[in-house]
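User: Predict the structure for this protein chain, please.
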Amino acid sequence: MTELARGSVADRPWGRTLGTLALRGLTGQLVLAGADGKQYAIAFQQGIVVAAWSPLQADAAVRLALTGGLVSSTQVAEIARRTAADPHRDEIEVISELVRLAPDQELRLRRRAIAQRAARTFSIDRGEFVVDDEITLPVVPGSELDIRSVIYIGAKQLLSEPRLDAEILQYGNWFRLRREILRDLPQFGFTDAERPVLDRLLNGAWLVELDDLGVEPRTARAIVYALAACNGCEVATGDAPQVQTPQRATPVPAGPRRRRATPCRWGPRRSARRPTSRATARDPDLPAQAAPRRATPCPGGAAPQRATPDAGASGPAAAVEPGGIAPARRAHCPRRLRAVTSAACPLRRCAARPDGHPRTRSRRARHSRRRPRR
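Assistant: Here is the predicted structure, written as structure tokens:
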């Protein structure tokens, strides 16, 4: 057994340490000892993760099978009894034998266990590691795993928040995705949920700008951490632009509400007041004088002549000569105009009264006309 490297977790970002070992094509085993004395191991074969070990019960294969729905809670006790009876037997083989897993289900469970145990090393904040060229962990063919997916899982789920931010700032605060790594993005385990962050990193982005893309900030930082640890993006350091939080506009207090006039559907309203004559409009002291109106001449009388009222006459109307036209009784009502002729007029209703007024209709004729309903 030959020791290849030795160091501490705090020497550099832990993702950079694992990424560098994988890029160099390491064939060997890394053993990490935490401050509590527990040891964690990761086996590499030409830079590919082929096995991993964790002493925590949360990383046991039976626990992962239970959370994945492959076994029931009643079968956990039987699996634990069989594993304790033969400690050197593979735990995943015991589970597959008991619940009769399909070969593809057994392979997926084994890969998940390796990824979970290898990613558990990101939860160790203080510890020392040693890299040897000898692999002591059992290796099952077909269970190889890319280290880039392990780094992304560890940064997203197990790395503490302050440590994640501190280790990202050791790379820089501006990142741009490299074009030559676009075909290798599936090896990180990215899904469609991480697509907005990757699209933004194509043209370069500051770290603070990734928080406004609708992706969880921890997920966005885990993506940047995994890419930077495997030399998947260009890194720079500078003064990041200040991201201003949009402020809510202060509402302006509304003034008194004005009542809108409701338009009349029958047209504009007309004033009930009758218009005054020109003389009244010019001088209110002058009495209104009605202009004489033309009346129908009597059929049996002479040619109609314009009546000239007597200046000295008193009463509502002056006497009219035979064959003339009497002035209107009311200037504003043309229906009451009546022609006054001589006594020789054959029409009885046109005969003149002694006082000079036109003869009105009889009481029976007046009441024969119905009044319009209101």
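The longest helix spans residues 103-119.
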